[in-house]
Amino acid sequence: LMQASGGGSVQAGGSLRLSCAASGFSFGTKGMGWFRTAPGEEREFVAFITWNGGDTFYEPSVKGRFTISRDNAKNTVYLQLNNLRTEDTAVYSCARRRTNPHTSIYDQADYDYWGQGTQVTVSS
Fold this sequence. Notes:
11 strands; mainly beta; four-stranded antiparallel β-sheet; seven-stranded mixed β-sheet; single chain; 48% strand
């Protein structure tokens, strides 16, 4: 089970911190990603963090504004969203990377378990 939380409505320039609490698997051995689905759009990659937090990767439009992190003791992955823009409005979902990935971290097919999303709405 994975449950995302922390979404909400903010004005442009504001901040939110999303959390995704996991249970039922060895969280500390898995890479974790965040994706988002904007209205009328396909789901897109946002950020990824390796199993130990040693490496992070970001979609170019969020790099420098969003920060992914994790606390393996709490089985939780976070996404700090700063300097939010209206185009960041979407449902944000966390995802577990496959044990044997075969495409890339940017491809949703490389993830085998998805958490329930949380809505982020940014107004101008």
